[in-house]
Amino acid sequence: FVHYAGIILLTLTRVLISRVRSCPPDFDCNSYIQMVDSIAFNPEIAPHHAMRIVPPLMVRALEGLGLNLEHAFQVVSGGAYIVFGLVLYYVFRKFAKEKEIALSFTLIILAAHHAMQIPLTQVHQACEALYYPIALGLIYFTFTRKATLVFGLGLLGIFTRQNLFVLAVLSLIYLIWQDKKAKPL
Questions:
Q1: Are 160 and 134 in contact (CB under 8 A)?
Q2: pLDDT value, residue 113
Q3: How far apart are CA 165 and CA 155, in angstroms?
Q4: DSSP string covering 2-56, please?
Q5: Which letter does DSSP use for residue 60 in this model?
Q6: Which of 63, 73, 74, 164 has the most beta carbons within 10 angstroms of its beta carbon?
Q7: How many CB atoms lie within 10 A of CB 29?
Q8: Tens-place pLDDT, residues 124-148
């Protein structure tokens, strides 16, 4: 419990001290901002951006609760970072013999990987923030042989970031190959 509380405290602190930047012109985030108002077809939005509807829908729901656009994106991106830290520790804890080793690896990954921290300042890139916990979930549920959860996360991944679809398909193929059962198919 203490390690989970520590991870929450550290990741939440990181989220709160990160300086949020506005979305630069010609960046993907402009598409996601537009999609908060409507996920209907818009020829101005690149097709591969238009498929990433999960973050804009989450932001729209948070706006419905009274948050402004920037704060809603910050909650989605920051929340994904916090959830990733917790899930990462949980997964490492399953495989490490000692809690301190799991905690150390978790903190190293959370602190050292620059790409993971970009959505904390570029909060409108929420699909990148959601990528990490979904990908880790796909990997974990593949190795624990939970085909239904792999399939569900794969569907969520399709509408978050398309390369998660590839990971989900490969995970399901792996499960078919390992278990010699048709359920993942």
A1: yes
A2: 65
A3: 7
A4: HHHHHHHHHHHHHHHHSPP-PPPTTSTHHHHHHHHH--S--TTS-HHHHT--HHH
A5: H
A6: 73
A7: 23
A8: 888 888 999 999 999 999 999 999 9
